[in-house]
Design a protein that fits this description.
Length: about 325
């Protein structure tokens, strides 16, 4: 065979292999996680990954809950799947538009509510972003009145939970920017925190943000003895909703960012209800949650069980859902 033809044949035969290599799925690490030598926690740790790191999937399917991956520096290993946000390939994205980020999710589609300097979600929360002081008033309902600080407990945190001011703009950030932000190991009430501990969260708390993710569950915290932030009121209309927002639809409560609606804010959103959100809860359809970024130190013992962090979006001031490949305000749904 002619030498030139042989070279051409070899070159063409490598094209499919090159295409496969360059189209391999990528994944973003959403939580600090170990890299292991096999798909088991019994195997020794061979390295570690941090939130925001990217890896390449060596194979697309999980094995015993682990993905086989290659890191940016070429190291291979196995990573627990719940801490990876697997990015769709171009082909799968075009076939699954209803469960992917809608084309209207960029800040340019809604410039009055979301902002981003790069045209895509920011991968970090800037300490330079404005943090307006919380504005909260008394809440009145059939169970009585509740002041801005609740009726005791961590009154400083309650004031943030009970704020009623609504942002004019939001900073659109990735799930990891909020869900993987560090926080100090400190007492369950910020009233007992040191000045140094408070200084660690001060650059970030109180920023208005928007985060896209998946709702695992919507829980109305009625019954029981109630919470101090709502003066221990217990009726469904008078309590917070705990909503569990994850970076990937394959994750559970233990890896979630808690986002909460409050009775004070819901007064202005009569269309908000668990029933309205049901088509976007545990269904693989995305939501965009906007509100005030804050830290709730009371629940540090639940991290890794019922939440992935004690950072929260609380209160939520806007809920948008992915419908027909665009963002729709929950208030506008019939």
């Amino acid at each position: 065979m002619n030498t030139r033809l042989v070279k051409l044949f070899l070159a063409l035969s490598l094209v499919p292999l090159f295409a496969i290599a360059t189209s391999a799925q990528q994944a973003e690490v959403t939580h600090g996680v170990s890299l292991r030598s096999d798909a088991s926690s019994a195997q020794p740790e061979t390295g570690s990954l941090s939130a925001g790191d990217t890896v390449q999937l060596i194979q697309p399917d999980k094995e015993h809950g682990y993905y086989h991956v290659r890191t940016a520096d070429g190291k291979e290993g196995w990573v627990w799947g719940r801490y990876l946000n697997v990015q769709a390939t171009a082909a799968s994205a075009s076939q699954s538009q209803s469960s992917s980020t809608p084309s209207g999710s960029s800040p340019s589609s809604n410039p009055a509510t979301t902002t981003s300097a790069t045209g895509s979600p920011s991968t970090s929360i800037s300490p330079d972003w404005a943090k307006p002081a919380p504005v909260a008033g008394a809440y009145q309902d059939a169970e009585g009145s509740c002041g801005p600080n609740g009726d005791g407990g961590d009154t400083a945190t309650n004031l943030r939970k009970n704020r009623t001011d609504v942002p004019t703009t939001y900073h659109e950030v990735t799930w990891a920017a909020a869900g993987a932000l560090p926080y100090p190991a400190a007492p369950p009430s910020r009233l007992n925190w040191s000045a140094d501990q408070l200084a660690q969260i001060a650059p970030y708390e109180g920023v208005p943000i928007s985060v896209v993710g998946y709702l695992v569950k919507v829980k109305v915290e009625s019954g029981g003895s109630g919470e101090s932030t709502n003066c221990h009121q217990t009726q469904p209309t008078d309590v917070d909703w705990h909503m569990y927002l994850t970076a990937s639809q394959s994750q559970g409560e233990d890896a979630s960012l808690i986002v909460e609606t409050t009775p004070r804010v819901r007064q202005s959103h009569p269309n908000w209800s668990p029933q309205k959100l049901a088509p976007w809860s545990s269904t693989g359809a995305q939501v965009r949650i906007s509100g005030w970024f804050m830290l709730d130190p009371e629940h540090a013992d639940m991290v890794g069980k019922y939440r992935g962090t004690i950072w929260e979006i609380h209160p939520v001031t806007k809920i948008e859902v992915s419908k027909d490949n665009r963002w729709v305000d929950l208030d506008q749904l019939p």
